[in-house]
Design a protein that fits this description.
L-fuculose-1-phosphate Aldolase, eight-stranded mixed β-sheet, 8 helices, 8 strands
Length: about 250
């Protein structure tokens, strides 16, 4: 990836700064809720009105991400605005490959959240994938897609297959690898991850119990999913989550 020259003192317009604030807050929340993995994993955001997207600088923990140290890259992986990164090597290639696959093909998606949570990893290794076991998972069951493991995501050729497997859905299990959610808003991407992680955790607890279990009938899943549409993920939760970040990690906005 090539580092393009940029003015590090660039002033961001209001829409980009708002996006930076929301994305930095999402990183802090990911850390608070146990979705982070030291310096690994990625949450990205499309910059409004551009084909560029924001990603974390490689080497920073999620609790160190701020609105101003996010890095701007384009669909080819070129660094447009490095924030405080010293070189293009500060961008993790796997994050670019996975996220650019979606950002360059889904115009409706503005935020993408990828996690290696323990429960998500466990379900990603199950042949049956995510099972319709609990009410909280119902909005996800119809949104779930699967992508087979191909090794570390460093081959740009994988992007086409990943995007094809995701299709028009908003949740993806990367088999033997982890989980991913995406949304039109930051709140949608975060809350889908929250409920996907919960569904994965409960599934592994149910399976570990060794007791018989009941799957929700497909017709009931469809009915309940329709009922859930009056509560768009993130619409009501995000303001409350943002207040939590402002209380616990106010430096996210620096």
């Amino acid at each position: 990836m090539k580092l393009q020259e940029t003015n590090r003192s660039v002033r961001y317009d209001e829409s980009e700064w708002r996006t930076r604030l929301d994305l930095a807050a999402c990183y802090r929340l990911a850390d608070m809720f146990g979705f982070s993995d030291i310096i690994w994993n990625h949450i990205t955001a499309k910059i409004p009105g551009t084909e560029h997207f924001l990603i974390n600088r490689f080497g920073l923990r999620h609790d160190e991400i701020t609105a101003s140290n996010l890095v701007t890259i384009d669909g080819d992986g070129d660094v447009i605005d490095p924030g405080n990164a010293e070189s293009a090597e500060d961008i993790n290639v796997t994050g670019f490959v996975i996220h650019s696959a979606i950002h360059t093909t889904r115009t409706d998606i503005h935020y993408i959240f990828h996690s290696h949570s323990s429960a998500g990893l466990a379900v990603s290794a199950l042949r049956e994938g995510l099972l319709p076991l609990i009410q909280d998972g119902i909005p996800l069951y119809a949104q779930m897609a699967y992508h087979d493991y191909e090794g570390l995501s460093v081959d740009t050729g994988e992007r086409e297959r990943l995007a094809q497997h995701l299709g028009e859905k908003k949740a993806l299990i990367l088999r033997n690898h982890g989980i991913l959610t995406c949304g039109e808003t930051v709140g949608e991407a975060f809350m889908l991850m929250y409920y996907l992680e919960r569904a994965c955790k409960v599934q592994m607890q149910v399976l570990a119990s060794g007791q018989p279990y009941d799957l929700i009938d497909p017709e009931i899943v469809e009915k309940t999913a329709a009922q859930y549409r009056v509560f768009p993920p993130g619409q009501y939760e995000w303001p409350a989550l943002l207040r939590l970040v402002e209380q616990k990690s106010p430096d996210y906005s620096s």
